[in-house]
Amino acid sequence: MSVVKPEITVTVLGSGTCVPSLERSSCSVMLEVSNSRLLFDSGPGTMRRLLRTNTTIFEVDYIFYSHFHPDHSAELVPFLFATKYPDMSQRQTVLTIVAGGGFEDFLARLKGVYGKWIDLDPGLLEIMEMNNQAADSLRLKAFTVQSTPVEHNPESIAYRITSTGGYSTVYSGDTDYSENLIALSNGADLLICESALPDDLHLKGHLTPSLAGNIATRAGVKKLVLTHFYPECDQVDIEQECRKTYNGPLVLAEDLMRIQIPG
Ligand SMILES: [Zn+2]
Ligand SMILES: [Zn+2]
Predict the structure, then answer these.
(1) Are 187 and 102 in contact (CB under 8 A)?
(2) pTM for this one?
């Protein structure tokens, strides 16, 4: 039997929201692509979940922010502060933060509060802002990045990461129903999609299981992972709601779940 080596390994670090939960940490997903480790969002609790995967903060090469709501970004401050301990010598590689337009200003305002406590040496931190008005792309060493604006906050973008072998994963961030997300996800191997609330509690700026399923079907993705579950989602049959609109492989995210592509 031949064993196919995965090109992308996805680990759900937090499948929850702003609501404190022992089962579902706030939003964060780790992708391992080639030898790079990428975080998508860093809600509160991300560093402790990372430790559960035997990953230190110093091994994270990239953080991609979908938007700046605290349940997606709040661990950035303690992440940067911990990077300075004891003297920044533990970080051997550059930390690159990728985010929609406005991130430089967001970070500057955080520095207005925390000052040098979160200031890394310039050589250790690189910031890349993606266009939050139109589709954008970026070619990095071990993978390519495509992004597109989605329906949530002005800075909100979704990302598609494609490995050198052509395997792709899309991370929606928070969004309402989005034609841009459908276009970005076209034929993707995996779509990690928010599904914040059950169908009958649809909240503007968010998706439900059947709306996420509709997006996955129209995009023709090969596998759908639903995540970002408010507590109301744990009271209903999310899978059944998603099956109204989507027949393909479906995973309901749980913290520390791993998915390999190809799997
Ligand atoms: Zn949000
Ligand atoms: Zn959110």
Answers:
(1) no
(2) 0.98
**Distance (Å, whole) CA 46 – CA 38:** 13
Pairing between β-strand 36-40 and β-strand 28-33 as defined by DSSP bridges: antiparallel
Q: Is 184 helix (H, G, I), strand (E, B) or coil?
A: helix
pLDDT at 15: 98
Instruction: Say how many Å lie between the CA of residue 4 and the centre of ligand 1.
Output: 36
pLDDT block averages, 10 residues each, the chain of length 263: 83 98 98 97 98 97 98 98 95 97 98 97 94 97 96 98 98 98 98 98 98 98 98 97 98 98 93
Identify whether the C-beta of residue 83 lies closer than 8 Å to the C-beta of residue 120: yes
- Cα–Cα distance measured from residue 212 to residue 45, given in angstroms and rounded to the nearest whole number: 26
Q: Distance between CA atoms of 210 and 190, rounded to whole angstroms?
A: 17
Do residues 213 and 198 touch, judged by C-beta distance below 8 A? no
Tell how far the Cα of 46 is from the centroid of ligand 2, in angstroms.
Answer: 14
Taking the centre of ligand 2 as the mean of its atom positions, its distance from the CA of residue 229, in whole angstroms, is 9
Give Cα 263 to chain centroid, integer Å.
20
Listed in sequence order, the DSSP H helices in 115-172 are: none
CA of 71 to the centre of ligand 2 (A): 6
* Centroid of ligand 2 to alpha carbon of 165 (angstroms): 31
Distance of CA 186 from the midpoint of ligand 1 (Å): 23
Residue spans of beta strands (DSSP E) within 41-89: 62-65
SS3 content of the chain, % helix, strand, coil (to 5): 25, 25, 45
Question: Which residues have CB less than 5 Å away from ligand 1 (the ion)?
Answer: 69, 174
Supply the pLDDT for residue 1: 54
